Amino acid sequence: MLRELDIRNFAIIDALTVSFTDGLTVLTGETGAGKSIIIDAVHLLAGGRGSQEFIRHGAKKAEIEGLFSLDNEKHPVFRKLDEFGINSSDGDILLRRELNDKGKNVCRINGKLVTISILREVGAALIDIHGQHETQELMDEKQHVYLLDQFAGKSIAKAKESYLNTYDKYLKLKREFASYNENEQQIAQKIDLLTFQLREIEAAELVAGEEEELQQERKRLQNFNKIYESVSAAHEAIQGESKGLDWVGSAMSELEHAASVDEAFSSQSETLSSAFYQLQDVSTEIKRVIDDMEFDPERLNEIEQRLTLLQSLKRKYGASVEDMLLYYETQVDELDRLINRDQRLQLDQEKLKELTEDLRVEAEELTILRKKASKQLGNAIMEQLQALHMGKASFEVNFSSLPSGRFDRNGRDVIAFYISTNLGEPLKPLTKVASGGELSRMMLALKTIFSKHQGITSIIFDEVDTGVSGRVAQAIAEKIAAISVHSQVLCISHLPQVAAMADQHLFIEKKVEKQRTVTAVHELDGQERTEEMSRMLSGAEITELTLQHAEELLTLARDRKLTMR
């Protein structure tokens, strides 16, 4: 849920910090007080389109920051954060966005700088903003199949996973199959090029690890004189007359004599004896190496030529000998595919035919499961519409299919939600429903159902109750409250019935401070809330009667909420 919202220099807001609670928060106030500006700020925080016009006059930049807290460790937003390398171990998510007067955006999530597209993707998993005339997920027919699958839940999840695995194989084979359609001239040119490349690599007789060995050998040959002088000097120091080995031998003899008299020196005597014989062995080995050492300028020239050849091949076929060998293997397969394309084409045709049949069967299974779920969804929505005093309405999920032989990631189903709001009227796509009041109720019916399945943390309704009154207004109020049981709901409303159902009531007003208009937020409780409810009921002067009516409305709302939770 959205815990806290901090806004600086945004429209007519100078500096504003608002804390929110669980459940339903209702924002009320006079028209033009700034209620929608707060929602606009949240929309920008979720990755909405920004504009320099949002920056408060005279300021250099606008700043918006929102703190979200999630108790569900398996919420989909955490997977998204992991994908983008953003830490969220404590369950808190801090979104921040800055708009400056140069038109630049700075976006951060938990302090990490991100692009606007990442902010939008994360924001979409946290916030769903719905205004009466705003196109959003429920009004996008392309999303209806996903919503139906969400509603179906586990009953369709396994079948869809199996279908997607088959579909990915199908797409891969289709791409390979399409490559066979290249013209003969292009194929012949490819065969010639690959044949030349493979012969060039074969002629080089590459051996894994040889480049490193050649570089080491070249280093030895280039430094032959230095190595020879050093090794000779080492041998002379050990083996030369009156040099190291002689002195160690004398020390060994003396220590052996001491040990024969006093056993306390036995250990040192044995150690020195071992060292003497080891030095003898080292001296002998060094002498053998010196005798074998011979500088071969021709070998150095061969190494230089070989390394030059390897460097030339690396520029064409890979960064190392191992990479070139791997390239060789893949191109051998590609050449075989091109040369034997007729046989492979036949094999791929058979595989593609099998996969197409598998897809058809699995897509039909998805259709059967969706049609079953659609009936359950239809019944659930009709139940909601009945409660919203749209008992004459009818709803159904319309199924059509992609053209024969075509599939997409959802199978072959093209799904759209259809509704008729009046008895005797034909069912029409949800997107064609024109009446504002009917559209609001339809949206609330869908939201009441889908809010349980979508996992959205915060749902925002911006005056969705416009154009309704009386018992419909009360029904809408109860539906919004019902949605808030599963998701935090922020709602701008002019209806006292909606305000009465609020768990938190925020009053938005405009003030003049230092010759500037600013927006202020005040949380209402007790008598203040009763008076605001009275004002909403009367629309003008507060009277004893409207105060009594407000008290009654609040009491009824409290009783009604107890039955919901």
From TrEMBL:
Can you tell me which residues the record assigns to a coiled coil? Answer: 335-376
Its domain of life reads Bacteria
Q: Protein transport: is it a keyword of this entry? A: no
Q: Cite the InterPro entries for this sequence.
A: DNA_recomb/repair_RecN (IPR004604), P-loop_NTPase (IPR027417), RecF/RecN/SMC_N (IPR003395)
Single GO MF descriptor: ATP binding
- What are the RecF/RecN/SMC N-terminal domain coordinates in residue numbering? 1-510
Q: Which UniProt keywords apply?
A: ATP-binding, Coiled coil, DNA damage, DNA repair, Nucleotide-binding
Supply the Pfam families for this chain.
Answer: SMC_N
- Some GO term, biological process aspect, for this entry: which one? SOS response
The name this protein goes by in its record: DNA repair protein RecN
Q: Can you quote a single GO CC term? A: bacterial nucleoid
Q: What does this protein do?
A: May be involved in recombinational repair of damaged DNA.
Claim: Coiled coil is one of the keywords in the record: yes
Q: Which organism is it from?
A: Planococcus glaciei
What family is this protein classified in? Belongs to the RecN family.
